[in-house]
Amino acid sequence: MTGVPASAAGGGATPVSGGNGSKQVPGGKLGAAAVNQASLWNIANILTMMRLVLVPAFVLLLLQDGGFDPAWRAWAWAAFAVAMITDVFDGHLARAYNLVTDFGKIADPIADKAIMGAALICLSALGDLPWWVTGVILFRELGITLMRFWVIRHGVIPASRGGKMKTLAQGVAVGMYVLALTGPLATLRFWVMAVAVALTVLTGLDYVRQAVVLRRQGLAAERAAAESAR
Fold first, then answer.
1. 3-state SS assignment for residue 32
2. d(CA 123, CA 128)
3. pTM assigned to the model
4. Which residues of the chain have pLDDT under 50?
């Protein structure tokens, strides 16, 4: 989730309209191009790119020596933890410092789903996590993403508190499965994952409800506008 730096100042500034509002850019089109090019390399975008790079690194670390070496899995957990932390900070920085860009809007959700999907698929392939759990979580995440596009012309479905809790629970649960835990901790991670799956399903159903309501309202507004225009 990333962005646009403060507008440049200088003589002969030309107002340029962008995703973050009107900017004063020196030198007309050339100045605008320079600002747009520089805007890609802000801290929020860099954190998103870092998370994308961590995906293959995480997979390689997790699958080293057959995927069952505790030391390698600890390194894999560290990579996964860094990816989860950057997910929190890049969004916060983008919103707090007006660093929202088209690249960030596309790359951030891709990076989120890539690291989580890679972890779930690898854990199921190793036999640590049932495939149905991976299937439920991935189906929900991809389904909600497609549904957002389905209703986007009517409005945006905002992230809910339940959705944020779901993301946290998934991150903690998957992180615990990445580590080679035994005994009571292995039992604890089972219950954390159970909570994560429950939140995944419940929040998914809530998003479906919101999407249906939003689409109905949007279609009703369109019909009303068409009738008033006659």
1. helix
2. 5
3. 0.75
4. 1-38
